[in-house]
Amino acid sequence: MAVKYELIKECKQTGARLGRVHTPHGIIDTPTFMPVGTQATVKAMAPNELKEIGAQIILSNTYHLFIRPGHKLVEKAGGLHGFMNWDRPILTDSGGFQVYSLSDNRKIKEEGVIFKSHLDGAKHFFTPEYVMEIENSLGADIMMAFDECTPYPCDWDYAKHSMERTLRWLKRCKDAHKNTEKQALFGIVQGSTYKDLRIESARRTVEIELPGYAIGGLSVGESKEIMNDVMDYTVPELPKNKPRYLMGVGSPDALIDGAIRGIDMFDCVLPTRIARNGTVMTSKGKLVVRNAEYAEDFLPMDEECDCYACKNFSRAYIRHLIKAGEILGGRLTSIHNLRFLQNLMADIRKAISEDRLGDFRKEFFIKYGYNK
Amino acid sequence: MAVKYELIKECKQTGARLGRVHTPHGIIDTPTFMPVGTQATVKAMAPNELKEIGAQIILSNTYHLFIRPGHKLVEKAGGLHGFMNWDRPILTDSGGFQVYSLSDNRKIKEEGVIFKSHLDGAKHFFTPEYVMEIENSLGADIMMAFDECTPYPCDWDYAKHSMERTLRWLKRCKDAHKNTEKQALFGIVQGSTYKDLRIESARRTVEIELPGYAIGGLSVGESKEIMNDVMDYTVPELPKNKPRYLMGVGSPDALIDGAIRGIDMFDCVLPTRIARNGTVMTSKGKLVVRNAEYAEDFLPMDEECDCYACKNFSRAYIRHLIKAGEILGGRLTSIHNLRFLQNLMADIRKAISEDRLGDFRKEFFIKYGYNK
Questions:
Q1: Catalytic residue IDs of A
Q2: Could you report the per-residue pLDDT of A44-103, keeping only the tens digit for each?
Q3: Sheet of strand B90-92: strand arrangement
Q4: What CA–CA distances, in Å, run from B269 to B227, B248, B266, B278?
Q5: Residue B175 annotated in active site
């Protein structure tokens, strides 16, 4: 199998796991946060900077790469690793989430999804088999199965119907996946916010033996409480000897609460997206560095941070860059936010190793200014 | 004096000079090319990358910094060096060129220029004295006098009138300049494309003793032949023991032809501007990397280049990034173009030291594909 999970220890205070995911391109310390490189680049970042901030794995998007530049071109370039010159692990999503987001421009059938490209309106047809072909061309260490990400809210009947189809598609994905030696296929648990469906989905997804499992369909508009509830009853259904990936989560509170519930992997565009708009995460909470109050503030964005941006530039300078539309502005805030999350994950791993992730949560929430 | 020029040797084949400019923030090997950081940042580049590509001095724009974030803020941040965290030499222009470019939104008087900000339409009044105050606040190692950059073409009468005013303004600049220990004021020779005016301007500008002199009003639309002619009769009027700066020039042919005529310093937005649009300078000539022909070209932009972009990424990948509007695209092409020019200047300096800049010109022009 391309990917193996090694459990190092469980936190005695919580359900959190300290572990390692072994992949063809190296080891990932878990719990981990994966920066998102939608179009074969983590926005504003170069690969050497991603290494500098400590990223051990990045995510890229099958839908976007299929549309542009095309998976065949990426394959010719030596897969995503060669194309973007990233020699550490990569995970590709299945395009499911993106395709469903096209709403009016897609139609779901049992066979697959017909959709129109957001770029040129060209019609395409994603089936589980075709998505596996695309992901095999991209060559990521971990590839996600083609699922349906149900919207929120979603009625029970639709959630059940959709979950069943996602299970049927998962079997088709597994059968179609051609490069099992070097690429690990992960299944995705769905079932919206219904306990019975989530548990059933988890059990039947796990019955399809795979190197890892994800929880999908969360962080799509529901409250943090609901998300935590779903994890509370879903994660126990997942095997202990496989990595568990909570899709689309990247806010500090959700990362900590996910880790506490036994999640090993996370991803989200949040840190880089808010960065480009001038918002950064700091040891004292969110800071909107583009705000006028920082115009003459010569402190670093985060005095406790060790990133290139915080070691070298002031809030006043970064605010100026962002106000002036200068590329370096979004670069510096992106570097910082990604480093902040890498440091947070390292802190989480340390707290697990010391059996004190519950205490860490309390301390962090107070420091960061969360109201609980 | 803040700045001293050291002449190392003259090329026996041409009039080119190998030298060093000594400044409060370090030594510049000349002939040199200065990347332009209009708004206190060389677009898309971080200071550590500027050092990596070998930039010894950068230029920044007084007009832009005055408008945003304001020179008083920059002064509070420790001047431009502190504000943007660049510890090597900086040159600031005077805002003259930018203010005149506002055309309908400015009025030139003997006292100075009234203009409206391109950002918010607010009225401002630049006088030689005020510009010196601003440039003193910015704190660059070299600051340019407030001159009038005449348009091209320009009739003799206006060019004469304007040149006289530029001379009167230069005296006012020299009188108003307050930080002569740490900042060197350079005068600017004008006179459009008229030999008599250029020579008169040069002689009378040099009479005003200053640490360096620039040739302004070129590269504004006239042909390369005219630009070379103007240098041919203007440069000999400039003193040998002071640096000579040709403003606004950055194409490889003009850099070589300027060096041959005894120019020591150049600047231009060209390399970074064309880079962001997907055009790069290579050892075999210009290459429009965003063109379809490079879609599946896995060679580096320039096989002979040693920059981070060329050592790590293919034309196909960079084309993809630029087509997709990804920040990394413009970053990589900017790194390359600036490195290309730094390497070119190093080659020019080597050719001068070997008394063969004339031969180098011939070889380079053939290799680059210039038709002469």
A1: 93, 267
A2: 999 999 999 999 999 999 999 999 999 999 999 999 999 999 999 999 999 888 888 887
A3: B32-35, B265-268, B244-246, B212-215, B184-189, B142-144, B90-92, B58-60
A4: 18, 8, 11, 14
A5: no
